[in-house]
């Protein structure tokens, strides 16, 4: 399907156009509310090399831990999908993808998180949101002096 055919399809199907518009509006509003909420809750020392994050449900029954793990990973995938959509629609796409990755569990996650947060656009946006919320800026380990 070419771009012209796709645009013709959209204009001929008003319902699809309204659904896409509603999705764009909902995702925009959700990103305005959820992203700052999640970003200000990242622990200050989360990106420090020695930081060992103990989840609140670590001491719960194994069934509860698995349910939480599955739900958390599902939400991570949803955030990444919305983040990719928000790269084309109005909203905070990079931050949404970053939050989605924070929710997922996979090998090499910590290294990827550090690499992503080092991107100037993500780091500036996260710092700005945390400053507006009255939270301390995130700390990072300096490779030269170990801080």
TrEMBL record:
<feature type="transmembrane region" description="Helical">
    <location>
        <begin position="16"/>
        <end position="42"/>
    </location>
</feature>
<dbReference type="Pfam" id="PF09656">
    <property type="entry name" value="PGPGW"/>
</dbReference>
<dbReference type="InterPro" id="IPR019099">
    <property type="entry name" value="Uncharacterised_PGPGW_TM"/>
</dbReference>
<feature type="transmembrane region" description="Helical">
    <location>
        <begin position="91"/>
        <end position="108"/>
    </location>
</feature>
<protein>
    <submittedName>
        <fullName>PGPGW domain-containing protein</fullName>
    </submittedName>
</protein>
<keyword id="KW-0812">Transmembrane</keyword>
<feature type="transmembrane region" description="Helical">
    <location>
        <begin position="63"/>
        <end position="85"/>
    </location>
</feature>
<keyword id="KW-0472">Membrane</keyword>
<keyword id="KW-1133">Transmembrane helix</keyword>
